[in-house]
Specification:
The complex is a heterodimer of chains A (356) and B (75). Chain A has 356 residues and is of the alpha/beta class. Helix content of chain A is 37%, strand content 17%. Chain B is an alpha+beta fold and 75 residues long. Classes of the chains: A alpha/beta (356), B alpha+beta (75). The interface between A and B is medium-sized, with 41 and 20 residues.
Chain lengths: 356, 75
């Protein structure tokens, strides 16, 4: 059955029986089972990658379905890693699929990523991207990232034999306000799908010792149908920063800088809970917040909806949209509006930490 | 010189040919660009000259291709 299943790819002289054995011995961690991680994991499972670790704390929403193609309507509300794992096991029951229903955090990153041959960064936020970078440099493990902006996608294999890393490309975490997410700008499934396949392609080629363009940033524009490549030289200083962060884990913050005039941390919110109004501005109020909250989706939000008689805290997924919105509401005369720093993502980490 | 603009930066300026009489370094090029497009100052991006990441002192010549590369966040 196995020989028959993989017969077409084994027929390629570059792969053969040896290559297929390499694939079956390979262990790959996929961080983020969204528009990038779904197609990447699907093709890696189908090609016979021996061990796939799927890591995601997020839940499936209907608006994910056109691009996160491992999920069906019946998966809405379920954890993405769990739903993806179930579908991949149907696709290929001869491989080992491990499901981690958690976000990658400074507390768990080392434990979850070690003992793999390569990591796929299919995340949709910079804190996770810099965390993966630093842990992979610390573990001496290659990783490949892809990221999206409307019709454009970029991909690069990092940290191969001391080679270029994400920090060599962008040393400092960018201001989230200038790099919008898919939920803000929109996304067509085929664009994230091609980026996801590029991720799977780089992993397969790395495992098979075929060319995988380490340290070359490739940017493809699906509107102009042009691809541009840049060579990124390894920067010893940036590799050192990553290693130092890795050694200090979990005592390293990957948060965006908190604007104290505008943002509260989860603990501050908890302390004032009795006197404030929490406003959930996510398009879908799932998973529900742990406090009573007013649901005002950002697309319909207007200053007139905001209660003026008490302090209000806006909550979104990562704390970027809510920060922008809080700033805008203040410009429109509502001086007592705040944003939850880090959004629901930080909250989940906050609760995991306080529970344990 | 040929200027290529990517990602969120395309909301501020477009790719295309830009007149360049004499060679100049990346630092001077960016100063001029910021003067023309002040909103760019809010963005994180790197400059690549002829498909290699460039530093402030890298020289740009009239026949060169210059790319402005912001990080992408979507996933």
């Amino acid at each position: 059955m196995l020989a028959e299943r993989y017969q077409r790819q084994m027929l390629l002289p570059e792969i053969g029986r040896d290559g297929q054995e390499k694939l079956s011995r390979a262990r790959v961690a996929v961080v983020g089972l969204g528009g990038l991680g779904c197609p990447a994991a699907q093709y890696l499972a189908a090609a016979g990658i021996g061990t796939l670790t799927l890591i995601d704390g997020d839940r499936v929403q209907a608006s994910n379905l056109p691009r996160q193609i491992l999920f069906g309507a019946e998966d809405c509300g379920k954890n993405k890693a769990a739903a993806a794992g179930k579908q991949l096991a149907r696709l290929n029951d001869a491989i080992d699929i491990r499901v981690v229903e958690r976000y990658l955090t400074p507390d768990n990153a080392r434990r979850l990523l070690e003992k793999h041959d390569m990591v796929i960064d299919g995340s949709d936020n910079f804190p996770t991207r810099y965390l993966i970078n630093d842990v992979c440099v610390g573990l001496d493990m290659p990783f490949v990232f892809a990221a999206l902006d409307r019709f454009q996608w970029q991909v690069m294999v990092c940290n191969v034999d001391g080679g270029a890393t994400y920090r060599c490309l962008f040393p400092n975490m960018p201001d989230p306000d200038t790099a919008p997410s898919c939920s803000e700008t929109g996304m067509l499934g085929v664009v994230s799908g091609m980026a996801g396949l590029a991720l799977a392609h780089r992993v397969l080629h790395y495992v098979l010792h075929l060319p995988f363009a380490a340290g070359r940033l490739m940017i493809t524009d699906m509107l102009t149908l042009q691809t541009t490549e840049m060579t990124v030289a390894p920067q010893e200083k940036q590799r050192r920063v990553a290693r130092q962060n890795f050694e200090r884990l979990p005592a390293v913050s990957y948060d965006f800088q908190c604007d104290r005039q505008l943002e509260w941390r989860p603990q501050q919110l908890e302390e004032r809970l009795a006197h404030i109004q929490v406003i959930d501005i996510r398009e879908s109020a799932e998973p529900p917040l742990p406090w009573p909250a007013l649901w005002l989706p950002v697309s319909e939000l207007s200053p007139a909806d905001i209660p003026g008689d008490k302090e209000c805290v806006l909550v979104c997924r990562y704390g970027t949209g809510s920060r922008r919105m809080a700033r805008w509401l203040r410009e429109n005369g509502l001086s007592r509006v705040y944003s939850l720093h880090g959004g629901v993502h930080a909250l989940e980490n906050f609760y995991i930490k306080t529970e344990s | 010189m040929k200027l290529l603009v990517f990602g969120a930066l395309t909301r501020e300026l477009q790719s295309g040919e830009r007149p360049l009489e004499t060679p100049l370094d990346v630092r001077t090029f960016l100063d001029e660009l910021y003067e023309q497009y002040p909103a760019l100052k809010a963005y994180t991006f790197r400059v690549a000259v002829n498909h290699s990441l460039a530093g402030d002192d890298t020289m740009i010549r009239p026949e060169d291709e210059v790319a402005l590369l912001p990080p992408f966040a979507g996933g």
